Amino acid sequence: MAVFTSVTLEDLAPWMTQFPLGKALNIRGIASGIENSNFFIDTEQGEYVLTIFENLNFEQLPFYLKLMRHLADRGVLVPAPIANADGELCVALHGKPAAIVSKLNGSSQMEPQPVHCAEVGTMLARMHLAGRDFTIHQANLRSLDWWQLTVPKVLGFLSAENRQLMQDEIAFQSAFALTPTYKALATGPVHADLFRNNVMFDGEQLTGFFDFYFAGCDTWLFDVAVTINDWCIDLVSGELDMTRVQAMLNAYHAVRPFTAEESQAWQAMLRAAAFRFWLSRVYDFYQPRDAEMLTPHDPTHFERILRLRISQPVPALPQA
Ligand SMILES: Nc1ncnc2c1ncn2[C@@H]1O[C@H](COP(=O)(O)OP(=O)(O)OP(=O)(O)O)[C@@H](O)[C@H]1O
Ligand SMILES: N[C@@H](CCO)C(=O)O
């Protein structure tokens, strides 16, 4: 279980009085996730999710919480943050920032079919469009600047072959980010971590996107690439599953058509999306933090995907 900060019902009861949710009746740690401490809490008003943020600070958090509120207000299915009596969405608990959000119904769909991929594609495009008038700007904190700072910290842990791959890819991505094609890509708030385990389904019905704590302003296409690289692959080989890829891309395109520049950038973005998670997984693997129980994600999964996206042609984006 990824509970870095323990919270008991006795700790919670006085803290909860500032929220309009009645008494806290029960709390239980959630046995998944690797970034934050998460708990389901039962209150007199129903079930909610309490998150204690282990790595994000009070200056960074309003972006995520206000973005979720903004999206929810525009009909995008996301958890709604609950304000305390002072209107604050983020309040200290055990000295760390914490927030309460509504609990989504359903469960994660870990074996998605084309119908699930289409639902995700539609909601992702709606989310990008709904974010256009969000006024707070915060960069994606796991984008090129972070890659450039982090690569030197992990190179020493890698085999000679992987060191070469990482150095070649950071050089490629650094150069690509300077091209007119990259600079022409549409940008805005993106989720940036929309994996299978960050979306809820009730049967074939999508009930919400959650875990917005890697969100930031970046290219919309990067968000699509992150999502494709998790939802539309064979998890063992990392190969793209064309039926699921087409279902997601066509559904997205029907709401927010892809541009010519996005078509040109597509393979580079699929590489960038694979690289981002290879790097963060390698970093987490060699810099573990304390947790009551923690299984780090396997870095070799995204090393494999990155090699495939470099070496194999990728399916074209739908054209306007
Ligand atoms: N709003 C919500 N509604 C219902 N369940 C939720 C909600 N938020 C989180 N959960 C549950 O808690 C689990 C862990 O949450 P989350 O993925 O946000 O953790 P994390 O530590 O940020 O994880 P990650 O490793 O994905 O970054 C989810 O898998 C889900 O079961
Ligand atoms: N989705 C990330 C974990 C951080 O949310 C990964 O699979 O590496």
Automatic annotation (TrEMBL):
Gene3D superfamilies xrefs: 3.90.1200.10, Phosphorylase Kinase, domain 1
Enzyme class, UniProt record, top EC level: transferase
Catalytic activity entry: L-homoserine + ATP = O-phospho-L-homoserine + ADP + H(+)
Key words of the record: Amino-acid biosynthesis, ATP-binding, Kinase, Nucleotide-binding, Threonine biosynthesis, Transferase
Domain Aminoglycoside phosphotransferase as annotated: residue spans: 27-258
MF-aspect GO terms: kinase activity
Record keyword ATP-binding present: yes
InterPro entries: Aminoglycoside_PTrfase (IPR002575), Homoserine_kinase_II (IPR005280), Kinase-like_dom_sf (IPR011009), Pseudomonas-type_ThrB (IPR050249)
Catalytic activity, EC: 2.7.1.39
Pathway(s) this gene product operates in, as recorded in its UniProt entry: Amino-acid biosynthesis; L-threonine biosynthesis; L-threonine from L-aspartate: step 4/5
NCBIfam families noted in UniProt: PRK05231.1 (NF003558), thrB_alt (TIGR00938)
Family note: Belongs to the pseudomonas-type ThrB family.
PANTHER family assigned: AMINOGLYCOSIDE PHOSPHOTRANSFERASE DOMAIN-CONTAINING PROTEIN, AMINOGLYCOSIDE PHOSPHOTRANSFERASE DOMAIN-CONTAINING PROTEIN-RELATED
Protein name (database record): Homoserine kinase
Organism expressing this protein natively: Undibacterium macrobrachii
Taxonomic lineage of the native organism: Bacteria, Pseudomonadati, Pseudomonadota, Betaproteobacteria, Burkholderiales
Gene symbol of the encoding locus: thrB
